TrEMBL record:
Organism, as annotated: freshwater metagenome
PANTHER family linked: CARBONIC ANHYDRASE, CARBONIC ANHYDRASE 2
Pfam families hit by this protein: Pro_CA
Family designation: Belongs to the beta-class carbonic anhydrase family.
Molecular functions (GO terms): carbonate dehydratase activity; zinc ion binding
Record-given protein name: Unannotated protein
Record-linked PROSITE patterns: TAT
Lineage: unclassified sequences, metagenomes, ecological metagenomes
InterPro entries: Carbonic_anhydrase (IPR001765), Carbonic_anhydrase_sf (IPR036874), TAT_signal (IPR006311)
Amino acid sequence: MDLSRRRFMILGASAATLAAIPFAGATAAGAAELVSPAEALKRLKLGNTRSANGNLVAKNYSPLGSTPAKGQKPFAAILSCGDSRVNPDNIFDTAPGNLFVVRNAGNVCEDVGLGSLEFAAAALGVSLIVVLGHTHCGAVVASENSIKTGELPPTHLDAFVERIIPGIENLPPGHTTNDAIATNATYQASRVENRSSIISGITSTGKLGIVSGVYGLASGRVTWL
Ligand SMILES: [Zn+2]
């Protein structure tokens, strides 16, 4: 099958069809654990409370033998900023295999990341997608600066700035940077659902939820939006 034909077929596939595509080496291992979106969110909230309170459960990040190579079954996907102070596994006190994480500056919904989230939802069966902003986000500050100056940053820095600006440019005068950070998180979450028929198709069944939140660098706590 040539690539163009193959691409057409994938683009035309329903969520159910895509879920059946055998992504070699990456599909769920064994019987899938059924976790509702509400249960997935509850796990993340409990994990964040442990993390913020300094009660992290010890986890093994050393090579785990042959079992993980048979597949993965994460219960949630996270779209977070690439900020070095933001570590989803630590924030939610999760173990290897629990979270499918997509990261970039400003936790923006762009094509490769969106395709990755589609993969997590349709092929791996995550129950929840979390768009996670954070306080003191430089990508949002840069976007606010571009709105003020009317100029985009050079080279490829504009790639995330121009995807943040539409969500925050109509905030009322006097808004805070934290307002813009929260608005960006909810805006990017809406883009994840609105731009992906695969993801919106699964959310309509109730098997997948999409939420957004802001991680506080100082508190260690996620404020859910
Ligand atoms: Zn950031």
